[in-house]
Amino acid sequence: MSTNSQPPADDPTADPQIRQEILRLRASIDNIDAALMHLLAERFKFTHRVGELKAQAAVLPADPARDREQIQRLTSIAEAAGLDPEFAGQFREFIVSEVIRHHTKIAQEYGEVRPLDTYS
Question: Do residues 12 and 6 touch, judged by C-beta distance below 8 A?
Answer without folding.
Answer: no
